[in-house]
């Protein structure tokens, strides 16, 4: 099993959810996050004062998938999140040793 984690632009969330649901993903976790990458934030002017926004709003998506689905899920995430501009995000995979469905006690891929 793999845990696919993606950090994306907030405005891409609905499109990514729809793409993942179309692919067959049945569950995911979404969290609000803040951060920056190569774009290093940006400057804004508010009431005549210029200030730097260091941490940009982002969305963190986590999906637990079988090994066979992992590469396809990454492809779906990358294709849907891509705008071609800095700040599109990152996607990474982590091996998962065990998963347990709390309600039923199912283990392994049956718990996905």
From TrEMBL:
Query: What are the alphabetically sorted keywords of the record?
Result: Nucleotide-binding, Phosphoprotein, Transcription, Transcription regulation
Entry's PANTHER family?
Answer: NITROGEN REGULATORY PROTEIN P-II (PTHR30115), NITROGEN REGULATORY PROTEIN P-II HOMOLOG (PTHR30115:SF11)
Q: Which domain of life is it from?
A: Bacteria
Question: Belongs to which family?
Answer: Belongs to the P(II) protein family.
Q: Which SMART domains match?
A: P-II
Q: How does it assemble?
A: Homotrimer.
Note whether Nucleotide-binding occurs among the keywords.
yes
From the Swiss-Prot or TrEMBL record, give the protein name: Nitrogen regulatory protein P-II
């Amino acid at each position: 099993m793999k845990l696919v984690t993606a950090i994306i632009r907030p405005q891409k969330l609905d499109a990514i959810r729809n793409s993942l649901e179309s692919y067959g993903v049945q569950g995911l976790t979404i969290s609000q996050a803040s951060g920056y990458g190569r774009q290093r934030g940006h400057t804004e002017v508010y009431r005549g004062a210029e200030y730097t926004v260091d941490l940009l709003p982002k969305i963190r998506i986590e999906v637990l998938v079988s090994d066979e689905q992992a590469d396809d899920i990454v492809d779906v995430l990358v294709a849907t999140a891509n705008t071609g501009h800095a700040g599109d995000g990152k996607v990474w995979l982590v091996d998962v040793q065990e998963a347990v469905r709390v309600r039923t006690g199912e283990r392994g891929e049956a718990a996905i």
